[in-house]
Amino acid sequence: MQRYTKTGGEIWDMEKSQSPRMGSVILGVDGGAGNTVCVCIPAAMPFADPLPVLSRAVAGCSNHNSVGEDKARETLERVMAQALLKARRRRSNVCAVCLAVAGVNHPIDQQRMLDWLREIFPSHVKLFVENDAVAALASGTMGKLHGCVLIAGTGTIAYGFTRDGREARAAGAGPVLGDWGSAYGISAQALTAVVRAYDGRGPETALTNSILDFLGLASPDELIGWTYEDQSWARIADLLPVVVESAEAGDEVANKILHNSVGELASSVKAVVQRLELSGEDGKDHFPLVMVGKVLMANKRWDIGKEVIDCVTKTYPGAYPIHPKVEPAVGAALLAWNAVASELDGSPRTVA
Amino acid sequence: MQRYTKTGGEIWDMEKSQSPRMGSVILGVDGGAGNTVCVCIPAAMPFADPLPVLSRAVAGCSNHNSVGEDKARETLERVMAQALLKARRRRSNVCAVCLAVAGVNHPIDQQRMLDWLREIFPSHVKLFVENDAVAALASGTMGKLHGCVLIAGTGTIAYGFTRDGREARAAGAGPVLGDWGSAYGISAQALTAVVRAYDGRGPETALTNSILDFLGLASPDELIGWTYEDQSWARIADLLPVVVESAEAGDEVANKILHNSVGELASSVKAVVQRLELSGEDGKDHFPLVMVGKVLMANKRWDIGKEVIDCVTKTYPGAYPIHPKVEPAVGAALLAWNAVASELDGSPRTVA
């Protein structure tokens, strides 16, 4: 593999050897904590069900905070080239790109990514750079940036948009900065409860046996070595099902942790809704509440997602929950498609 | 530098070129999260004030969980050789060694360290391996293993011993496992409070301006990048003075964080005291409560250490607080000295 330079010219050598099809396309990229997905959809898109996804490519992590900027950009550029190759298109076919990547937390991050994207795509191509949470919202709203999305997987974030383009977020800053409703947060609290029960600071809990069994450890002493060994968030977050099972079996400590998690997640949503006044002046306006991530999957008796919705709708009865049927990368593509279409209609929201 | 092998024979080459003084000595080693200190004291020690420390050597971190076992052992062996060299003694002068190192959390850790130490020192040398908290206790009790020590620096742990050699600990498992009373815990909660105030999940707080000023950042958004940059506990724990100042200036959020910290630290002490029944059957027996670490230093109006003592003595009026005058490495040496002396008296507590 050649070394990646500012923009990886050699990545696009594929365009020379290809006899492309006709037709404009849109690229949607979702770069989460784990991997990066790029989909290619036709720009002249009939609203069919299922959506006509021309191609899909997958690559590693593209969060610049985790892997560094060079590596993140190389991953993004390669995954876009691969999606185009699979769809038998070239860059000249592309009319819009939406890059929704974790780690875009600041207008400076956003502008730097836009500048870099502009070196790859000519000036008539519409470019959008967003936090990956925005793609998750769009995956539930068919590309419309309106409403609130709650993501609760390994990490958690709430992100919202008004119809006139104002946006707000809550949480999403990682465990050091208090994302306690996530699978990581739930699992870390469960581990803490086991240590506290063991050393006499906290009540006995069935989590002790369930977690030690799950990890194949003999004593809570060994948890210290286990956490030091590899402090990756995903590894700790994998304890989520054990906590849910213990709560379902009636363990009070586990139940308390899940109730805390519901409170944390609902408070993120409510903070966004309140700041954006998504529920209108009378507090009853309808708005989409898109629910994404393994913590919110309704596959258990202890249904965290349902509890969060109940908690939010008590304050904001107009929130209508959506569990998206398409993946966030498709959401990103729909967002670009929708923005291009709106622009033709004279909508105010355009980026770059 | 030669590569370190199982025991670093070349480290002891210094013994060949040296004309040693006479007299038995004891080595005390304190290996904390930051560095490792070794002191050498005479075995026939008059209880003078100040204590007759023959030499002192300092090296880097020797927590095997942080730097790996090889590196930890090399650091320990070198720092002991250096202390002996400075005191103009050889290993043949050594009658006892006490190694008190962070990361010794399990009898297996302890036995492995004892086996390794035995390869360096012949069978008549008394060897002791303990968690570094034990050296901190001994630094307040002149080497007697009785009472409870509370350490609250970057991390926190409570450790206690009964007169008949039973021991117990609480906390000390790191932030993932809930050490919330430490300087790291206090600082992480303060950072979280700033993010929560910013995104609307929590109340406004003066911590926002004080922390941003202290770190030279313009907006709470930038805290995410700042924490990702380097997640070392010590770097985050350095915010402690900012939190204390904000609390002293009357900020409610900062005050709540410090009160939480007091509750957490006192609960660690109480868990240890209760499990060991240090306060006797009537709950009024006297026992030392040794207070160590920057969180507990009484140098501010908001005196966390004093609040913890008040909280503990409400439940256990016999606890008498001690702020040690010697460093933990001297505590480790005194522990070995005391154990050797006790053994001559027929005391039950001997190790290896």
Task: Give a short summary of the structure.
The structure is a homodimer of 352-residue chains. With 352 residues, chain A is of the alpha/beta class.
- Classification by helices and strands of chain A: alpha/beta
CATH class of the largest domain in chain A: Alpha Beta
Looking across the biggest beta sheet of chain A, what order are the strands in?
Answer: 3-2-1-4-5
Sheet-strand content of chain A, in percent, reads 15-25%
Which superfamily, in CATH terms, is the homologous superfamily of the largest domain in chain A? Answer: ATPase, nucleotide binding domain
Specify the overall morphology of chain A: globular
Domain module tally of chain A: 2
| Main sheet overview of chain A | 5 strands, mixed
Please tell me how large the radius of gyration of chain A is. Answer: 22 Å
Can you give the mean pLDDT of chain A? 89
Write the CATH fold name of the largest domain in chain A: Nucleotidyltransferase, domain 5
Assembly type: homodimer
- What is the total tally of β strands of chain A? 10
Number of helices of chain A: 12
Query: Would you identify the regions of chain A where 5 or more consecutive residues have pLDDT less than 50?
Result: 347-352
User: Helicity of chain A, in percent?
Assistant: 40-55%
Family (chains A, B): Belongs to the eukaryotic-type N-acetylglucosamine kinase family.
Domain ATPase BadF/BadG/BcrA/BcrD type (chains A, B): 27-336
Protein name (chains A, B): N-acetyl-D-glucosamine kinase
EC number (chains A, B): 2.7.1.59
